[in-house]
């Protein structure tokens, strides 16, 4: 089940009831600002390209610079929260992210914008990596923790679709600069409220975890890995020499990190945390589900834009049902489901609904009708996400010691970020390859739709693999007969 008072209670848990909930709202506000930034910028890319003169290839660095810093530093940032105090790292991240947002808005050249986006990624990693660890310490009681994590999961998973709408409104009504300037008042207010309502924690101290070689190895491995996924793999293909070389470098760095952590006196990432199959399974499920969901939101947006002819604002409005359904379930009902059935059953059922939605999307035709071919898919994705993601977040922290809460929080974030980048690169590449292979025999829109259908089907298979892991790897230890019976019950309920 969820974390108990004995395992995760620390100083912040002693805060009064009202201030704890205000602290939660502050943490969610910080997370929302980070999540919104990704999709808000995607919507504004054409305007940024026209204004600053980016080429099609160089424009990708507006996104990639952020992703490389963010994905590369999440794990390190989470561990720094354990060592230096999670509130300190959270506030520092907000300050860095807000200052970089202002620099992005003021950017008058390509170089300044790309550098500012990298700094934004640093701030985003520091801010978001420690949030989940702070929540489980603020709310050690299982029922309150389930409710708090439900609210966090909604912000973390549904904020992207809100960003599509906000980006369309700001870009069309004012200018692309304001997608960054809007972070200034939000960031300043969040810092002020955080200092007021989030109780300061001391951390366990650098002497308990100073591991500079380990930090260098894992940060370099993640940055090179994310760069490989979003750049050469996406543009040149997975078998291109440059992609293979960088993949090999990533694997060597990861191997070096594992050896270092197994032998270091004070490792940055104690490998003992992976002995928990609940934590390990939760991170695998996070990577797979993020691969399927993030890629589909991106390719689904392209389907609406290129096939159905939607503009940016219409795309944002089209995805609103997912946000509404996910928000209603995450905030209002996820806690009740988890307390009634435990976290694993909602996880399996929610993931299964996502698989069903993705499979249904493979039937969307060239002349598709939104209410017939798109809305049911988005409703299923929202329903499944609202049921499964709060349970997944809770499971990822359920076997974590107090001194490792920031690390576990950063780990689940890292797996989601890497999974999303990998899923997007793979699905986008396969979609483009499929479209190119049938372009000579089918009209352009039909060829595009064929490519999207293939990606939707593969995404369904990826999330189905997450269902299999949730049913097997995350199964509690039982007698064989009891385990087999529970597996059958979970599969039947999911179906």
UniProtKB/TrEMBL annotation:
Membrane topology type: Multi-pass membrane protein
Organism encoding this protein: Kribbella speibonae
Signal sequence bounds: none
Protein location: Cell membrane
Domain of life: Bacteria
Family annotation (InterPro entries): EmrB-like (IPR004638), MFS (IPR011701), MFS_dom (IPR020846), MFS_trans_sf (IPR036259)
Protein name, UniProt field: DHA2 family efflux MFS transporter permease subunit
SUPFAM superfamilies referenced in this protein's UniProt entry, alphabetically: MFS general substrate transporter (SSF103473)
């Amino acid at each position: 089940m969820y974390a108990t008072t004995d395992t995760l209670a620390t100083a912040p848990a002693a805060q009064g009831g009202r201030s704890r909930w205000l602290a939660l709202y502050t943490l969610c506000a910080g997370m929302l600002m980070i999540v919104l930034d990704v999709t808000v910028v995607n919507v504004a890319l054409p305007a940024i390209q026209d204004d600053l003169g980016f080429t099609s290839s160089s424009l990708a660095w507006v996104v990639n610079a952020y992703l490389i810093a963010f994905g590369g530093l999440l794990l390190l940032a989470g561990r720094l929260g354990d060592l230096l105090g999670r509130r300190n790292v959270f506030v520092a991240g907000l300050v860095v992210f807000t200052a970089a947002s202002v620099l992005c808005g003021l950017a008058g050249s390509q170089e300044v914008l790309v550098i500012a986006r990298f700094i934004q990624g640093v701030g985003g990693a520091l801010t978001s990596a420690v949030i989940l660890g702070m929540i489980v310490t603020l709310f050690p009681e299982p029922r309150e923790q389930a409710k708090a994590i439900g609210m966090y999961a909604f912000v973390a998973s549904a904020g992207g679709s809100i960003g599509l709408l906000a980006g369309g409104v700001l870009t069309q009504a004012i200018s692309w600069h304001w997608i960054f300037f809007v972070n200034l008042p939000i960031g300043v207010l969040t810092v002020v409220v955080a200092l007021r309502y989030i109780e300061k924690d001391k951390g366990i101290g650098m002497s308990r975890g100073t591991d500079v070689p380990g930090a260098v190895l894992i940060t370099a491995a993640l940055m090179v890995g994310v760069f490989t996924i979003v750049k050469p793999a996406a543009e040149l293909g997975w078998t291109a020499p440059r992609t293979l070389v960088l993949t090999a470098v990533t694997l060597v760095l990861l191997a070096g990190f594992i050896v270092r952590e197994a032998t270091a006196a004070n490792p940055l990432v104690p490998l003992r945390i992976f002995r928990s199959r609940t934590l390990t399974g939760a991170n695998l499920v996070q990577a797979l589900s993020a691969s399927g969901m993030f890629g589909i939101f991106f390719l689904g947006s392209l389907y609406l834009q290129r096939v159905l002819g939607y503009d940016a604002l219409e795309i944002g409005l089209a995805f609103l049902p997912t946000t509404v359904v996910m928000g209603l379930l995450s905030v209002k009902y996820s806690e009740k489901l988890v307390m009634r059935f435990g976290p694993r059953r909602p996880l399996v059922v929610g993931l299964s609904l996502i698989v069903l939605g993705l499979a249904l999307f493979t039937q969307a035709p060239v002349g598709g009708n939104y209410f017939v071919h798109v809305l049911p898919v988005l409703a299923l994705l929202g329903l499944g996400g609202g049921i499964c993601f709060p349970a997944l977040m809770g499971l990822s922290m359920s076997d974590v010691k107090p001194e490792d809460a920031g690390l576990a929080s950063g780990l689940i974030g890292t797996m989601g970020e890497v999974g999303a980048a990998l899923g997007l690169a793979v699905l986008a590449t396969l979609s483009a390859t499929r479209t190119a292979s049938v372009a000579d025999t089918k009209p352009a829109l039909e060829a595009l739709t064929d490519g999207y259908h293939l990606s939707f089907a593969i995404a369904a298979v990826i999330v189905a693999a997450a269902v299999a892991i949730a049913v097997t790897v995350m199964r509690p230890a039982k007698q064989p007969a009891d385990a087999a019976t529970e597996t059958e019950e979970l599969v039947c309920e999911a179906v």
